[in-house]
Amino acid sequence: MADFEKKNVLADKSYQFALKIVFLCKKLDNQKEYILSRQLLKCGTSIGANVAEANGAISNADFSSKISIAYKESLETKYWLKLLKDSDSIEENEFSKLFSLADELSKILFSILKSTRLKKSDN
């Protein structure tokens, strides 16, 4: 199997997560919750965009930088999801599902970040 055909679990998960965020933000817009919706849309979709950029990185430093940004965006996404839940803008059930996915992405990204930083310090 060629490299470009290999399944990238992180890219797939972050893309599917971004889709869920887009659908939630459309729903929030219908409820006239524009401000928090925009914040969530930016960071929630940025995770996957930065993972995509990391996959096209031209150096290890570039890869590490993009993964680091994706990790920080996942943390910000969790913040906005908590705020939406605590302000009664989304239901507990929806919050739990999305927060769990965001947390899973955070853990994967942090693990990659740690391993790339360890490899860097070994050189």
TrEMBL record:
Pfam families cross-referenced by the UniProt entry: 23S_rRNA_IVP
UniProt-listed InterPro entries: 23S_rRNA-intervening_sequence, 23S_rRNA_IVS_sf
Name of the protein in its database record: Four helix bundle protein
